[in-house]
Description:
five-stranded parallel sheet; binds cytidine-5'-monophosphate; elongated; Rossmann fold; 19 strands; alpha/beta
Amino acid sequence: MTLSGRHIILGVSGGIAAYKSPDLVRRLREAGAEVRVVLTRGAQAFVTPLTFQAVSHQAVHTDLLDADAETGMGHLELARWADEILIAPATADVMARLAHGLADDLLTTLCLATEAPITLCPAMNHIMWQAAATRDNAEILERRGIRMLGPADGPLAEGESGPGRLMEPRDIVTALQGESSHSAIAGRHVLITAGPTHEPIDPVRFIANRSSGRMGFALAAAAAQAGARVSLVAGPVKLTTPPGVERVDVKTADQMHEAVMARAAEADIFIAAAAVADYRVEQIADQKLKKSDNSLTLNLKPNPDILKDVAALPSGPLTVGFAAETESVREHAQAKLVDKRLDMIAANQVGDGMGFDVDGNTLDVIWADGEQRLGPAPKRDVATALIQLIGERLNEAG
Ligand code: C5P
């Protein structure tokens, strides 16, 4: 009964998979959740409010501008009531409307008006799922911290086969239960670094790297979803802050070091996912450097090693480092685990289209007496798995 007392709004949009949604309501209630159902206009072409009223034992919500409904539980009250909004099935259309912030019906309005986490279970024709517009919309939604479960791969209603099936209701409930049972992380303070650093050369130029920050942001989202208090120290990235995460923006490694050290002593877990520049320019020019025919030499000096400094704190947090390597990944990671005195290290291959600035990732996670491979999978799934693994280590460390 891990969903015991949890207030879940189940949004149902108009796809054939909506016939599975009453079963989902039944399973959510069996797991202890209180469920209120919102049907879009399209959904009502496939399933009726009466069906959902019978299985949820609650009035079903269908209209935004219905005076009677507003005098019952109005849309803002409903948005506040929710601990979680789950949309299953989520059609390509509902994804597009959410991605663009539309509020043209009750369900999309609730999604804008709530502070609760939102999970989508997409279901559609496989060509629609793979269409460029849907890919972009999915990426926008995930960047904003909206979680996707599925779609599953397999036979589709129209007789074709591919990715587009609604994840089975049983598996959706298991995923929601898993999320609220990351109790080792719940209530803990997790400090995360993400993104690259920019090391200035002169007022207009800097040294940087290819890190997009996506892995660190996905970890922040996963930790927040697992109930942690999350502080995210981010280098210059173009990403939206996941819901419920405190974000501190920095540019240089020095600034990142300062922001982290100010918070590290009272953190329970430190995850260094940033690609921190190892060196900075010794003499930053006051004015833009002028071009000449001569070669130019920049003197570089080492930056502080943020992770090493946190790991050396007397009663510091559990430390998790990343080792992004282009070769001998495991050997380098193992050496780093020992050298920096870390509790855990996540190694991944970068370069040649892997690791940096892409959506998928594979991590080899190594600790003193164990190791586990996570992925290949989208960064959000790898992040959720890593947060779970860190929770288990925290439990073992007592
Ligand atoms: O030594 P290397 O840079 O390969 O180690 C990578 C790990 O150390 C990553 O977790 C990275 O975030 C962290 N790091 C750091 N400060 C630095 C350099 C790396 O926190 N100056």
